[in-house]
Amino acid sequence: MAPKKNSAKRPQPSTPKPSAPARIVKVQSSDGHILQADVRALLLSSTLAATIKGYDDENKPLEKLEVNNVVGFTLKLVLEWCEKHKEDDPAIAQAEKDKKNIFIPSWDRHFLTKLPMGNLFDLITAAYHLDITGLINYGCKTVANSAKGKSTEEMRELFGIPEPWEQPSTSTATWDD
Amino acid sequence: MKLFKFPYLVQQEILHNFEYKNLLLLSFVSKNMNKLIKSSQIARFKSVNFIEYGSGRSDEPLVYIPHKNTRYTILKLTGPFENPARHENDYFTLNISGKIVDVRVCIFHGLVVFSRSWEPVIKSIHNYLLNLFGSSVEYRWTTSTRTDLFEVFIPRLKNLSVLNTSCGENDMKTVDTYLLSSPVIKRIDFFIFCSLDRGFFSRCGYMPTEEPFPPESKLYQAQSIGVTQRELATPAVLRHYQGRQAFIKCERCENQDLIEFINRWKSGEAFRNLEYLEIEILISEVPQNRIFYATGTKYIDVTKRSPTHTLPKIFIDNGDDEPNTDPITSHAYVVRESDGHVASVQIQRDTFSFGVWDKTEEEFLRMVE
């Protein structure tokens, strides 16, 4: 049988492992939606992991995490992705990022490509704010892949790039500095 | 989705995931996008050691970029009759450095640029790539190897530093004329052959005195040169080369020419810049004793270990190529009369190697163990 290429580098699908019972906490979005999530899933976010660690270090009960810069719809997507990947080794995502050799597993490909571009944009932005390396990797790769086979005009439309005579709207963009 | 609204690090990450052909196309979308690509992909572009203009099975120019020790085609220039089945979309127009051309995206060749007149278009493409990737990238031109079908085509491109050409007797003038009015090229590789059936070449054997390029040709000034020649008896490079590193493959080489080469180096009359010469002779062997005797070669005591000569190559074709010249470990050496510098000489059956040390004889002998 031929050996699998890069099998060591690729994140493997999550498989149920015998582990401690799930520790469920509430997560509140910027628009007030309250969702529930397993702490192991939330630990994929470096930002939320730091907050959770702060609570644990002080032995304070963690009842609700507030995520102030992500709306409910996007947060639900983030949590769905994190739930799917909660068993993954975060070192793999970092290694993929460092090597710039990102392979999108089929579940993620399906999850990300079914999203309209606007939602994908929000999801990547949320992943960036919450510092979820794996989701940023896959999201960015998905956006890059969407350019395949496109003409310049199609790319302009896809990525909302203004015509030369248009002024860019104010944003976090740094392209005109 | 508005790409410019992403945080800069996300923009950088997205662009890094673009294949080169798509990144190249995206850079045409707007000036600001072009600027963003240039500023955010500095590290990625730094790893692009060279951009090569070559040709595929026909003489249609292809633009390659290195990728994991292979060459990845990002662009192809073609005539108007390209097979449409291979394309991912319909024609669209592109303004490449002021030249308006029709373009399609191709599964195999990245961007396919359609034009009846190649030289002005390839110049525009080159100027665009030079602006995008910068001048630290090595730009290489490789002519078609199908010299039986196509004439040698070398357009005048800024910052071209490597020329790889195959040429028959009819093309030599074209290559020489090109070089004459160009800045000195860092590396020239040429595969040269003569048809014995035509002109003054006859089927009576090797032409011992034939010089494919005039002695003053700028070909001999390239810092590094690679020559593969057939049918001509002695590589003229051996007489006229003024650069630093020469790698020659030939079918035969006259002993007298090797002797003359060493003696001219010794006298300081020629080859002042030479650091390394390697001649691989495919048919005949080199008579070591005769060459050494005729050139007054000196020897290190055979009971001692001679120093090994090796240098970083001026030109490395691919990332996986050996970065240094082949080591010369020889007891034989010659001394240049003008400055007392030493060159190691090694003759192994069909290979003649000559490595110049930046050391006088006294300094050289101090390295002997």
From TrEMBL, chain A:
Residues 134-163 form the SKP1 component dimerisation domain. GO terms for cellular component: cytoplasm; nucleus. Residues 24-86 form the SKP1 component POZ domain. SMART domains: Skp1. Keywords: Ubl conjugation pathway. It comes from the Eukaryota. The keyword RNA-binding does not apply. InterPro entries: SKP1, SKP1-like, SKP1-like_dim_sf, SKP1/BTB/POZ_sf, Skp1_comp_dimer, Skp1_comp_POZ. The keyword Cytoplasm does not apply. Belongs to the SKP1 family. Probable essential component of SCF (SKP1-CUL1-F-box protein) E3 ubiquitin-protein ligase complexes, which mediate the ubiquitination and subsequent proteasomal degradation of target proteins. Regulates cell proliferation during embryonic and larval development. This is Skp1-related protein. It comes from Caenorhabditis briggsae.
UniProtKB/TrEMBL annotation, chain B:
InterPro entries: F-box_dom (IPR001810). It holds the Pfam family F-box. PROSITE patterns: FBOX. Residues 1-48 form the F-box domain. It comes from the Eukaryota. This is Protein CBG22207. It comes from Caenorhabditis briggsae.
